Amino acid sequence: MPEQDISQYLAYLLASANRRMRLGLAQSIAAEEVTEEHWRILQVLADEQGRSMGDLAELVLLNHPALTKNIDKLVSRGLVQRAADAADSRRVLVYITDLGLETVSRLKKSVDAHHHVIEEALGPRKTSQLKKLLETFIDECEAN
User: Fold this and answer.
1) What is the model's pTM?
2) How far lies 84's CA from each of 52, 71, 98, 101, in Å?
3) Is the CATH number of domain 6-143 1.10.10.10?
4) Residue 44 predicted with pLDDT over 90
């Protein structure tokens, strides 16, 4: 049986693309001294709705221990805060602070510039196609 080059596997290609995307994104937001995970958390919380840790973990693609560690770091920097849910005092919600909103506004410019570079390289049509293919892939994997 002939050996298949690893680069022919979809899992490898997705991992490689993810790695390159993350490295580029990390470079673009490095000046703010935040990680990609911090950016995702701040971006989700920027709607100022507040989120439970469970909801937030799902939205930002982190497991609970990793989310807790990241939230602790963001709290210590004054970018987010925890507060009891007014409807259920046993439940804790995470909210973005004013400083967090200022930070996410600056991060948005850097992240948008990073994505613009990628779109320039691929072109708008291929970028749109890639997004649709990835959304379909994600939906199909969740359905199965």
Assistant:
1) 0.88
2) 10, 15, 19, 20
3) yes
4) yes
